[in-house]
Design goal:
Shape: globular
Number of helices: 8
Distance between the termini: 58 Å
Structural class: alpha/beta
Strand order of the largest sheet: 2-3-1-4-5-6
Number of strands: 9
Strand content: 15-25%
Order of helices and strands: HEHEEHEHEHHEEEEHH
Radius of gyration: 23 Å
Length: 333
């Protein structure tokens, strides 16, 4: 059935402008967690992506410093504005992750933090008098740093990636890619892709039936680059009289904005210029919805069990008592 023709201008096409005005007024939240062992340049990379100093390194600065025995969670929140668009950006570092000889369970605090944010959002949603706009602390992206010296996925990487991809959008990156030759980098990427395929590890971006041909081509080009071989730098280096953000080595200078040197530009464009909205949307519609469905199903089963036990104890049918969320969010400090 063809759409009826409108004879006069009505004006509903201005809804995009109305939405833009509200969006600019409200701003948005973006929450990124950094997962990787110390010394992988996590803080430097995220500072490079947003072109400002957001976070300080949480790693050890000397060999004499005590190694953390457990993984810690260290969130830092900053408000940034660009061309009238305001973002409340939270960077969550995970100092201590993967730094032990025995790293069994080093991922537990990371997974718990991500689920805690889902639980806090769900708790706010279920309140009888909830806020008109719920503060969104859900993790939208996880930058997972692969050690360039491992030459592939380690058993720890496989275990952690399996668990992380169940709860958030994971973007794997090869840390400090300037420590590898281009041939080593190509081989590393090929091995990681093969191993992720073998272990059925699915990372962001995901295939969707809603994607059009343009989306599919864009996502295919991004999957070709994954894992992103990245180099971060907050230092400006003079090269032929021009300032360059990069790193100086004995054999030359790495320009982080040169696409022939590393994938930094591709990663930044992917996260901020082409898939930022998707990161937020997929978090809400995929990861949070899975968590929400699981929690509500468990609540329903728990209430049914409580009602059955109460009825059996009193010999009469009673209404199911209220039950708390199975996964309780951690207390905010």
């Amino acid at each position: 059935m063809s759409a009826p023709e409108i004879n006069d201008y009505v004006g509903f096409d201005t809804i995009t402008q109305q939405m833009e005005r509200k969006f600019l007024k409200r701003g948005f939240n973006l929450n990124v967690i950094l997962v990787g062992e110390s010394g992988m340049g996590k803080s430097t990379l995220v500072n490079s992506i947003f072109s400002t100093h957001l976070v300080d390194s949480q790693g050890r600065r000397t060999a004499q410093e005590v190694i953390r025995k457990t993984t810690e969670i260290s969130p830092v929140t900053q408000t940034l504005e660009e061309n009238g668009v305001r973002v409340q950006l939270t960077i969550i570092d995970t100092p201590g992750f993967g730094d032990q000889c025995n790293n069994e369970g080093c991922w537990v605090q990371v997974i718990k933090y991500i689920k805690d944010q889902h639980a806090a959002y769900l708790e706010s949603e279920l309140k009888p008098q909830r806020a008109r706009i719920i503060e969104d602390s859900r993790v939208h992206a996880c930058l997972y740093f692969l050690n360039p010296g491992s030459r592939g996925l380690r058993p720890l990487d496989v275990e952690v990636l399996r668990r992380l991809t169940e709860v958030t959008n994971v973007i794997p990156v090869i840390a400090k890619a300037d420590s590898m030759t281009t041939e080593e980098r190509t081989l590393f990427k090929r091995r990681v892709k093969e191993e992720m395929s073998f272990h059925r590890i699915s990372v962001f971006p995901y295939a969707s039936d809603a994607d059009n041909e343009e989306d599919r081509l864009l996502n295919a080009s991004i999957r070709d680059l994954i894992p992103f071989a990245v180099v971060g730098s907050e230092e400006s280096i003079d090269v032929d009289g021009k300032p360059v953000r990069g790193r100086r080595h004995g054999w030359g200078v790495i320009n982080i904005f040169d696409e022939t040197h590393c994938d930094f530009v591709h990663l930044r464009n992917f996260m901020l210029r082409t898939h930022l909205s998707d990161l937020i949307e997929v978090t809400a519609q995929r990861h949070y919805e899975q968590f929400r469905t699981s929690q509500l199903r468990q609540i329903k089963e728990l209430r049914a069990q409580q009602a059955a036990a109460a009825a059996a104890g009193s010999g009469m049918s009673v209404g199911a008592p209220s039950a708390p969320l199975p996964h309780q969010p951690a207390a905010q400090v």
